[in-house]
Amino acid sequence: MKAEPWHDVLGVQRNCTEGELKLAYRRLVRQFHPDLYPPEHADLVDQAVIKMTRLNHAYKQGKAEIGAKNANNTQKGPNGSTGNRFRSRFEE
């Protein structure tokens, strides 16, 4: 079976924000969590476990991709700083 792209599994655009990614993930987890199914329906529980595995993997991939994109797009100020104007009192 060919793996679906993470954004298709979670139902979001590839260029979504981290907040949109988290919201979609949480919505789907509430819908497909195995604990929502009664134990006597073992086939449904097994399908839910498979679905949750796919959701977890897709969320990790999406979070990593968005995090890498955000790290590359960090804007620097005119003096080359990343905008952190405040220094720790422990830095000298």
Helices and strands in order:
Layout: H1 6-10, H2 18-32, H3 42-72
Helix pairs in contact: 2-3
Q: What fold name stands as the CATH topology?
A: Helix Hairpins
Element-by-element helix/strand order: HHH
Total count of domains: 1
CATH class: Mainly Alpha
Q: Give the helix tally.
A: 3
3D architecture notes:
This protein has 92 residues and is mainly α. The chain has a single domain (6-70), classed as Helix Hairpins. The protein has three helices and no strands. The protein has helices at residues 6-10, 18-32, 42-72. Helix 2 runs antiparallel to helix 3. The longest helix is centred in the middle third of the chain and has 31 residues, at 42-72. The radius of gyration is 19 Å and the shape is elongated.
Tags for this model:
about 90 residues; elongated; about 55% helix; mainly alpha; Helix Hairpins
Short summary of the structure?
The protein is built from 3 helices and no strands.
